[in-house]
Amino acid sequence: MSIKLLSVASEIYPLVKTGGLADVVGALPAALAPHGVEARSLVPGYPAVMARIGKGRRVHRYPDLFGTPAAILSAQADGLDLLVLDAPGIFARDGGLYGDAAGQDWSDNALRFAALSRAGADIAEGALKGWQPDIVHAHDWQAAMTAAYMRFGPAARVPRVVTIHNLAFQGRFPASLFPRLGLPPEAWGMDGVEYYGGIGFLKAGLVSADAITTVSPTYAREIRSPAEGMGLEGLLNGRADRLHGILNGIDGDIWNPATDDLLARRYSARALGGRAANRRALETRFGLDHDDAPIFIIVSRLTWQKGMDLMAGAVDRLVAGGGKLALLGSGDHALESAFLAARGRHPGRVGVEIGYDEPLSHLLQAGGDAILIPSRFEPCGLTQLYALRYGCVPVVARVGGLADTVIDANEAAVGAGVATGLLFAAGDAGALDAAIARTVQLHADRSLWQAMQRAGMRCDFSWSNSAARYAALYRALIAEPA
């Protein structure tokens, strides 16, 4: 039986992206297709999206959607079957998806993403002539209200899945907004949208979902604890039988060193020699000395969650211990300044580019020896999966999806030939320093290092297994009694 799936999300690769959410939402439809799932993705009509889809075909019209005219457009782009919420009054803006050029959240984000969710629920209710989904899958707080609108409306019979990509972002707003959301009075309360006296978009989605997924098995366990539950651990423990940890995958066509046109030279696990040209290109791009010292790379948001404050404090010791660093990222201005200052202190040993550059991230993975990911928490992580695919050894904190995907180079794993990286205690500066020192030592043994690279490159983190789990979950929910 073919399943018609509506996916609702605030971003989708390659049309528009701020992080891993977009990668997942963009890759999942193609991965689900072999499992009999036909996916359509509802996304906001940001300027970048509208430019990619052209005119589109109007399939539903709103004279007034939270104060602005809007329409749902049907379009295809980059192999994706799209439904686009064309609402220029709330989405046609310069700046970022969620905030202005200065980094301040848009003041009307609550209504912007309530509108996206309302449109998702309307589609579930049959707003589109000739197409209605069998199941709806909403991603993160920006789309989670889809489940609440469905639960308190005519689409309550259509199964609802909500995926937590990062529990730290919950979409919390003042209670005074409730009358504007268009929900019935019974939606206000602990079993609805109310959350600590205000409104919680993610909370409303989680309490309204038929199934909750998150992006790794370890993270699914971590968020049930007070330390990682961020105020929602009680709800998640109460719904533990509906909580599933399904590891993210990566697009093996986009991330494949044997076919990647963004590299200085392509290579494979059997022919690692091609990495040398990428290493030289990386050294040149970041102004690093051309020598045999291990190159550590970072491709990350520069935030406390990502452990970048610990990393900023470790740079001098990394250089003193014999390593070099190439960093691509942006975020906290104080951390940006700290890394730029480290570049000034260590010319030829530290290179920094502030911002995000997708092609450059490919070169970093192909030319770097080891990627540093010292996150305090990490739901899944994709950069370590890209690194494994490219023979760039992950050096990661033992949390979330990092713990699920990297095999530490302890004596037993090295002896068995299965080690793929190094793990260390999260949030511990001393543990980070020790992991860096251990990496430098392992890198000096070329045969051992190449064995680790090849072991990582043999790992299968494609979407195949995860997509099969999603498809099985969808079928189980559809088969449940109404």
TrEMBL record:
GO biological process: glycogen biosynthetic process
InterPro entries registered for this protein in UniProt: Glyco_trans_1 (IPR001296), GS/SS (IPR011835), Starch_synth_cat_dom (IPR013534)
EC numbers: 2.4.1.21
Residue stretches making up the Starch synthase catalytic domain: 4-237
Coiled-coil segments: none
Keyword Ion transport: no
Tagged with keyword Signal: no
Listed transmembrane segments: none
Keywords: Glycogen biosynthesis, Glycosyltransferase, Transferase
GO cellular component, one term: cytosol
Domain (Glycosyl transferase family): residue spans on this chain: 289-441
N-terminal signal peptide: none
Gene Ontology MF annotations: alpha-1,4-glucan glucosyltransferase (ADP-glucose donor) activity; alpha-1,4-glucan glucosyltransferase (UDP-glucose donor) activity
Pathway(s) the chain acts in: Glycan biosynthesis; glycogen biosynthesis
Positions with a binding annotation for ADP-alpha-D-glucose: K17
Catalytic activity as recorded in UniProt: [(1->4)-alpha-D-glucosyl](n) + ADP-alpha-D-glucose = [(1->4)-alpha-D-glucosyl](n+1) + ADP + H(+)
Family note: Belongs to the glycosyltransferase 1 family. Bacterial/plant glycogen synthase subfamily.
Function: Synthesizes alpha-1,4-glucan chains using ADP-glucose.
Protein name in the entry: Glycogen synthase
Source organism: Sphingobium amiense
Lineage: Bacteria, Pseudomonadati, Pseudomonadota, Alphaproteobacteria, Sphingomonadales
Designated gene of the protein: glgA
